[in-house]
Amino acid sequence: MADLNANAGVVPQGPKPKKRLSRGNIFLYGTLIVVSLYYLLPLYVMMVTSLKGMPEIRMGNVFGPPLEITYQPWVKAWSEACTGINCDGLSRGFWNSVWILVPSLVLSISIASVNGYALANWKFKGSETFFTVLIIGAFIPYQTMLYPLVIMLRESGDGITWLVSWMNPILEALGMEPFGRIRLMGSLSGLVIVHSIFGMPILTLLFRNYFASVPEELFKAARVDGAGFWTIYFKIMLPMALPIFVVAIILQVTGIWNDFLFGVIYTKPNIYPMTVQLNNIVNSVQGVKEYNVNMAATLLTGLVPLVIYFASGKLFVRGIAAGAVKG
Amino acid sequence: MTVASDPPVQTVRKPNRMFKNKMAKIASIPMILTALCVFVGGTLWTVLHSFTGSRMLPKRDWVGLAQYERLWDSDRWIISVKNLALYGFFSLTFTLVVAFCLAACLDRKIRFENTFRTIFLYPFALSFVVTGLAWQWILNPQFGFQSVVRGWGWESFNFDPLNNPETVMFGLLIAGLWQGTGLIMCIMLAGLRGIDEDIWKAARVDGIGTVKTYVQVIIPMMRPVFITSLVLIASGIIKLYDLVVAQTNGGPGISSEVPAKYVINYMFQAQNLGQGFAASTMMLVSVVIILIPWAYLEFGGKKNG
């Protein structure tokens, strides 16, 4: 009692702190651990399957750790697995995906960041309307836009062919290879354009919201100093927007790498991205199924987004939370 | 401010403003083209051509609603729609319930919160193709989960959803939930974190139990979060395609076909564009039906508030 009076101001309030292992807590942690097992199971099963030999897999026990670890399935998945007549493994799909990813990333993010900047700081008549249409467009099922895009890509490919054809006589006179028919449909560049188009709504939204949160005084001060559209963008906005660029990159890398639909429609077999090639390898009906090779191939395909995920931590959550706004 | 009120500068500024708007407009050309040509133009084009008899190439021979009649007469389309409805209903219910429960668990100031969140969210980083193939292997009747349980001594154990037309959608659901709940959980967790600590204190003072507080106080407060999640899950369900292609490829038979797959198959494999256009228009209609009430709730409500 005397003690209590002595510290009258700091009497502990509320219920007594619970012991760490109360019944409620055991239930809570128990649930979380059981659910975690469900979430971790596929990753674990893929891992152990890819390290087993086929005889061991046929013995059953998909959950058991490998008795004898072999890296052969990984080697085979990477460099020997067959799709159709090509037997050079997933490496082909991997490099295709890289060649799709890098230009798509640069193009989509540069377009979207400039768009977002224009929408936030340089509003013009109708800019908000176009933006609203863009955002509504993000909700339209891709299926209604797939075929018109096929036509647009084909026609603009022909258009570009026509545009550059005047140079052909000059090139021939110089002894160089003239331009042939330029194709956007069924090519990597066509797919890059498609990815930039369908990534635009969410990325533009991301950048617009970010630039809108930048204090307006900064922008006004730069205007008073006589800086124009591009000067302000490159000298002021770009350096400040680095975190949002990282979020956009995470969003796009996982999105483009994981894409299947656009890859299968806008490219052709020898330039299929990794996901499409993976599906063709695993679900091919010919030959004996090699489950260990299949799982190694599956893990290889999942590796890039997984590395991004584990390396980026909180930023990934921010990226998908931004993606969530889009819906 | 002083600059603006200076008359000579102002006269110089007028044409300047025209010029700077021009720059912003030029920079926005890709956005305007995408919005108008691809999103609006493309959609209208597809809807328009769903009333034609296009087969290998799009043409303009109007056939009225014939494509739609054929669509709704087709067994495959009916099965696709039924499958999507089944998948959609369970996916929506389970995702919302599971994601909310997990978020509530993580919100109880537990240890290792970050570890658990990382575990629940990592499948979302993986593609549907990877998800589908991983679960196809686990659910493999010969070597997968079924054979393992049988190996433990339960010889009559039967769990082979992917090869049974009655249950194949649930096989897909197991994989779909695994991939997608993490995202919704994160959104819900953010929503729970946004709730004032005082609400909890007040509930405790009134002697309301934890579960009761969640059901009667917290969930009603989180209505916007639930609506966002709902829109998110629903738009994901309609897009359901890669998962089916990877995990079952529509089989056994046509028992796990979905509308998105119907569209792609008719447009790009069966050379029957008209059917593809009609089916994709039906998908668009279903999205519009979902979106209009949401847009009304979201934006109509804001104007009134």
Automatic annotation (TrEMBL), chain A:
The chain crosses the membrane at residues 26-45, 98-118, 130-153, 188-207, 227-251. PANTHER family: ABC TRANSPORTER PERMEASE PROTEIN, GLUCOSE IMPORT SYSTEM PERMEASE PROTEIN GLCU. Keywords: Membrane, Transmembrane, Transmembrane helix, Transport. This is Carbohydrate ABC transporter membrane protein 2 (CUT1 family). It is a multi-pass membrane protein. Residues 94-312 form the ABC transmembrane type-1 domain. PROSITE patterns: ABC_TM1 (PS50928). GO terms for biological process: transmembrane transport. It is found in: Cell membrane. InterPro entries: MetI-like (IPR000515), MetI-like_sf (IPR035906). Belongs to the binding-protein-dependent transport system permease family. It comes from the Bacteria. GO terms for cellular component: plasma membrane. SUPFAM superfamilies: MetI-like.
TrEMBL record, chain B:
The chain crosses the membrane at residues 26-48, 84-106, 118-138, 168-192, 213-238, 277-297. Its main location: membrane. Keywords: Cell membrane, Membrane, Transmembrane, Transmembrane helix, Transport. GO terms for cellular component: plasma membrane. It is found in: Cell membrane. It is a multi-pass membrane protein. GO terms for biological process: transmembrane transport. Residues 81-294 form the ABC transmembrane type-1 domain. Belongs to the binding-protein-dependent transport system permease family. This is Carbohydrate ABC transporter membrane protein 1 (CUT1 family).
